[in-house]
Amino acid sequence: MKSITYLFSIIMLFIAINACSILQPYSIRKIAPSIPEQYREKVLESLEEAGSNKKELLKVLYHYKEDHLKLQAASFLIAYMPDHCFADVSLVDSLGNTVAMNVMDFNTAMEVQAYIDSLETQIGELRYKLIEKREDVKTMYAELLITHIDAAFRAYEILPWTNQYSWEDFREYILPYRGSSEPISDWRSYFWEVFASSRDSIQDPLELAYVINDSSMKMFTFKDIFYYHSADQGLAEMLENKIGRCEDMTNFSIYAMRANGLAVTSDFTPYWPDRSNNHAWNAIILPNEEVIPFMGCEANPGKYNLQKRIAKVYRKLFSQELGTLADILPDSIKAPPWLGYKNFKDVTDKYRPVSDVTLQVNQDKPFAYIAVFNDNKWQPIHWGSVDSTGVVVFSDMGRDIAYIPVFYEIVDTIMVEDKEKPKYEPIPAGAPFILSEEGNVIAFDNEAVEIREEINNEFIMRMTGQGGINKVKIDSTYTWFVWAEDEWREVIDTTVTADSLVFEYYYPESLYKVEEDCLHPDPRIFTVENGEVIFW
Questions:
Q1: Which residue ranges in the chain fall short of pLDDT 70?
Q2: Nearest 5 degrees, angle CA 49-CA 52-CA 55?
Q3: Which among 30, 102, 152, 356 has most CB atoms closer than 10 A?
């Protein structure tokens, strides 16, 4: 009897083990040896980070277990998935309560800003806040990822240009399922069908890019109200609204072209060096490695002209670029906005003549930054390691631009939703300077105003910066500032009685701005040379 009972126990245990295998068929231990070695460690880290979504990612790996190339593709995407997410941003009040606002209710950006200004007079300061961070590694489901991978390989296998790309370009610029931080969706199926007839009649990838972009211009376009729609749009929202900002336009083109086997990405400058705002545009990579910029939904490859002055251009990646600031920055040090990410690479030298800038900074810090003047502030745009002698090198900087070296430090604390948080700001680490067209560093005077020489030669200003908003206005009050002792020092303020400002003297080798007394001043920095104003 004991033997029968023992045998029965063994049988039941065997059944239970097999039942567990049936109910939980996706084992990390079993699939790990199949994952390509170059991705294995990062894939295993991603699976750990996925938490309850681990099963969905394992499904994908098991689905391609017998297909070496697609398993490589799946491993690449899962390895770098933790770096990507949908970021939902909304306007909130000082307590963090969402303030309802639909930008589609307005005709211009100025109308949106006027509405926000009116709200702030009623309920206090408003700001944009990250409401939801939907991490891909925790939300991606197997069916969608498999759909993207299969569709990318469909193009790779049947289109004559796609299979001419290197594996590295295919996985970086065709395979990825997103363009930025937008909601993820199956855009490949949509655009594969939309451009089927065009694709089947064309053999040249660049010609197909023209055709797709020409059609995209009729489907989607730019409108400045979307500067106030801080979350990037997904495909469904773009098809409904038909308008967006430059990031949306680049994503629309990334979707349309990657779906049809073209290697396309987005390049961007975090801050213009001689006006406010930033910009993103597209770049198509041809099978011969030639890279041609264009503006999705606006201008075709070879027909897009960027402005002359560009301090930095970065290219978005799905993978990680080694040697970025985020790659080496200790957790105890906070990076400035734009510089705390690993998924981009510096391509400034592909666009403009560049120079390395070597400077001596005035404090003992491990990192320093180089900033441009944008939105009435110095904005860090690149970084460098400071050596033991206080020397820092900023690599590949655009020329004919005004810069300043800065540190990024806590300057105060602020209350955010009843919580005290540190306030970080760029702190001057030396004098501002011009990097000339020839690549020379021309420093500005940073000494006290009182000891500077005055040149008694008047100069006239009819604009305080670019655009109609910066025309000098009768009855408006303006303040003239000069950069001295690491800050803007007021020289004089005046109320205008004509359509221009007249100043009777200036200081040589000095940097200035003239700021209108209004809610949103947008002055440009300038120099005065032989009585002529030169904006930077």
A1: 1-24
A2: 95
A3: 152
- % of the chain exceeding 90 in pLDDT: 86
Closest CA to 343 of 80, 167, 135, 72: 80
Q: Does the pTM of the predicted model rise above 0.85?
A: yes
Please give the pLDDT value at position 9: 46
The predicted-structure confidence for 358-384, as pLDDT tens digits, reads as follows: 999 988 899 999 999 999 999 999 999
CATH tag, 136-307:
3.10.620
Burial class (CB in 10 A: 0-12, 13-18, 19+), 448: exposed
The C-alpha atoms of residue 80 and residue 386 are separated, in whole angstroms, by 30
Provide CATH 3.10.620 ranges for the chain: 136-307
H helix and E strand count, the chain: 15, 24
Which CATH number is 449-535 given?
2.60.40
Tracing tokens 């729609």 back to the chain, one arrives at: 229
Per-position DSSP letters for 195-257, written without gaps between them: THHHHHT---HHHHHHHHHHHHHHH-EE-GGGGG--SPP-HHHHHHH-EE-HHHHHHHHHHHH
Rg (CA), the chain: 28
**Number of Cβ within a 10 Å radius of residue 53:** 18
What pLDDT is attached to residue 24? 56
Question: Helix 54-63 vs helix 37-50: angle between axes, to the nearest 10 degrees?
Answer: 150
Taking only the tens place, the pLDDT of each residue in 66-77 is 999 999 999 999
Amino acid at 235: L
- The tokens describing 48, both together, are 């750990």
Q: Where in the chain is the domain with CATH 2.60.40?
A: 449-535
What is the CA angle 424-425-430, rounded to 5? 140
d(CA 459, CA 505): 7
Q: Which two tokens stand for residue 292?
A: 């041609």
In 323-471 the beta strands, taken as DSSP E runs, fall at: 344-346, 354-360, 367-374, 377-385, 391-398, 401-416, 419-428, 433-435, 441-443, 459-461
Separation between Cα atoms, residue 178 and residue 318, nearest integer Å: 9
